[in-house]
Amino acid sequence: MNGIEVIVAHRERATLRVGDVFLKIDADQERAEAEVAAMAWAPVPTPEILWRKPPVLALAALPGKALGRLSEPSTASSAAWVAAGAAVRKLHGAPLPPWGGRSLDDVVRELDAECAWLVANGVVGADVVARNRRVAEAALRPWTPVFVHGDLQLSHVFVEGDEVTGVIDWSEAGQGDAMFDLAILTLNHEDRLADVIAGYGVDVDVDAIRGWWSVRSLQAVHWLIEHGFDPAPELAVLHSRK
């Protein structure tokens, strides 16, 4: 054990690592309970729950390492990305959890509010926001709900060699659009989308995935700035849209 490592920390929650144990501290106990329920419901490997004493949830570390980081090129193999796509397909094929998720109306309402904030505060040019809002339309359509992770960043998928060893951070899990998970997994890593699709298989709407890239980036920048994080990867996505 080499001291305490702060994985992430902001006003809502924090995650610390002590040796092979992760301590998640969440001010919202309903969210913490949802995470525990989602891990129990998920048909893919998740961290072992060692103990829980609100507001702290102790989880065992997963073997391997994260598929990558949002701000860096991934060094994981093509086969590992294919395996990640297959794991997502398994998740989406599972029975729906008994709790819901964000509706299309919720997404549109939040998206329009964030677009207005970005322009009003001069964070992103009005032309860039407008262009991404148009791209986003491909995602803003009715979907058949599946069991989604809800925050499937590549740093939340752990691999060892070419195999997925587990998926972490399930607090946003629920019912939602399958293409949203695929979009979050490949955000700022468009070059890996073909591998993910190869593992996922059929029923992939690439236009919807591209739409969710814009939705996610437009929605995330405000929160990241407000909580002291660098929004550079999301801004790069916004500026790359055609």
Automatic annotation (TrEMBL):
Q: Which Gene3D superfamilies match?
A: 3.90.1200.10
Task: Tell me the ranges covered by the Aminoglycoside phosphotransferase domain, including all copies.
Answer: 19-201
> In terms of domain of life, where is this protein from?
Bacteria
Q: What is this protein called?
A: Phosphotransferase family protein
Q: Which organism is it from?
A: Nonomuraea salmonea
